[in-house]
Amino acid sequence: MATPNELIEEVASGTRAYQRAVDHYDELVASRLGINRSDLRCLDLLHEAGTMTAGQLAAGSGLTTGATTRMLDRLERIDYVRRRADDADRRRVLVELTPRAHKVAAELYGSFEDAAGGLSRYRPDQLALLRDFLNRGRGIYEQRAMRLQSAKKRPARVK
Fold first, then answer.
1. Distance CA 77, CA 71 (A)
2. What are the extents of the domains in the chain?
3. Which strand (E) or helix (H) includes residue 73?
4. CA distance to 13, 67, 78, 118, 124, per residue, from 127 (Å)
5. Is the Cα dihedral 84, 90, 91, 94 positive or negative?
6. Model confidence over 47-93: pLDDT tens digits?
């Protein structure tokens, strides 16, 4: 039986391998769709949220508002997103995925349940553990990202 330290190492290694596999697949999907990774990340944000404002997309993706506008123009031209007026506030514009984008996502990604390795086979306490692990890990990387973004930009040293 593995020791706690060995198990921690195996989980860390497995997490890294999982991240690489997802990253590789996302790279192939973006290429297949004729878009870049930032575009794909924004499509994922919209898929999860349903609708968002351009400002929310910019904040969620880390893009500037200008870059977000250009991205939305590109994605609208190829029929992956559409803009519509907010029924509650006609001055606001909401962005949502088109039926074509939903169809392509289903074809390339399938259901989340399938992609996640059949989460329904786990007990509620196991799912809570996985949820905690993922939330804590996400929080760590979000903090690291904020520190990098706020740090002075210095060129990397080449040795």
1. 10
2. 1-33, 36-107, 118-152
3. helix 65-77
4. 20, 37, 38, 11, 5
5. negative
6. 999 999 999 999 999 899 999 999 999 999 999 999 999 888 888 88
Decide yes or no: CATH 3.30.1330.30 for domain 36-107.
Answer: no
* CA distance from start to end of the chain: 43
Q: Which residues, other chains included, contact 145 with Cβ-Cβ below 8 Å and sequence gap of 6+?
A: 62
Which residue shows structure tokens 């994605």?
75
The β-bridge relationship of strands 51-53 and 93-97 is antiparallel
Q: Degrees (nearest 5) of the Cα angle 107, 112, 113?
A: 120
Tokens linked to 157:
């040293």
pTM of the predicted model as reported, rounded to 2 decimal places: 0.82
CA-nearest of 108, 72, 114 to 93 is 72
Separation between Cα atoms, residue 129 and residue 79, nearest integer Å: 39
